[in-house]
């Protein structure tokens, strides 16, 4: 299973490189030509996931372009970064923004209170306008909390990829140590 996944991921690199000759990507080719951006190894994957986790909190359509730029800057895997942005969706946005508000309130001086949903949405009905009004009511604590939460999630994503990548090697090391003790 793991070998099949690795083969499939390595097969993505040539297909992604074909798209570099098209349209507006051709002007970005010197940045995107770096092999690390498409390499499925531990460090580029970890950097890509970290970039995707950080940029996942950027509003809407700017997540993927932001992730592409951060991955190019950090030499992280673009595919992993793009996939990592999908942790934000309509179901997770409100809890993530509330968490960002609380993190911002912890960092900022003074008493900060989370505005109630009912204050922006009469009757408690969900709409895009009500969501925009609620986010605007969150104010400065949200602006401080979003980069803070993004940095925490990026560090967590980076560490998770590192641990998951190294887990088989650590298990193999323990197994070899057990075999040596049993043989001795």
Structure description:
It contains eight helices and no strands. It has one domain. The model has no long low-confidence stretch (mean pLDDT 82). 70% of the residues lie in helices and 0% in strands.
SSE blueprint and pairings:
Elements (H helix, E strand, L loop, with lengths): L1 H17 L10 H4 L9 H14 L7 H12 L3 H7 L8 H15 L9 H4 L7 H56 L1
Helix pairs in contact: 3-4, 3-5, 3-8, 6-8
Categorize the overall geometry.
globular
| Number of helices, where a helix is a run of at least 4 consecutive DSSP H or I residues | 8
Q: What is the H-and-E element order?
A: HHHHHHHH
Strand count: 0
The whole-angstrom Rg is 21 Å
Mean pLDDT: 82
Descriptive keywords:
184 residues; mainly alpha; 8 helices
Task: Quickly describe the structure.
By secondary structure, this protein is mostly helical. It has helices at about 1-20, 30, 40-55, 65-75, 80-85, 95-105, 115-120, 130-184. The chain has one domain (about 1-95, about 145-184).
């Amino acid at each position: 299973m793991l070998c099949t996944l690795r083969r499939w991921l390595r097969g993505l690199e040539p297909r992604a490189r074909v798209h570099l000759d098209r349209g507006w990507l051709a002007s970005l080719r010197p940045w995107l030509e770096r092999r690390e951006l498409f390499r499925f190894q531990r460090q580029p994957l970890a950097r890509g996931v970290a970039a995707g986790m950080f940029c996942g909190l950027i509003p809407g359509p700017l997540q993927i372009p932001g992730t592409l730029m951060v991955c190019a800057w950090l030499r992280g895997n673009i595919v992993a970064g793009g996939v990592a942005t999908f942790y934000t969706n309509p179901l997770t946005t409100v809890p993530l923004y509330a968490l960002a508000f609380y993190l911002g309130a912890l960092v900022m001086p003074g008493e900060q209170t989370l505005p109630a949903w009912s204050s922006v949405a009469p009757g408690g009905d969900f709409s895009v306008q009500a969501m925009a009004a609620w986010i605007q009511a969150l104010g400065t604590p949200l602006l401080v909390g979003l980069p803070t939460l993004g940095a925490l999630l990026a560090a967590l994503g980076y560490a998770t990829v590192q641990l998951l990548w190294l887990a088989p090697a650590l298990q193999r090391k323990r197994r070899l140590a057990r075999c040596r003790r049993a043989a001795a």
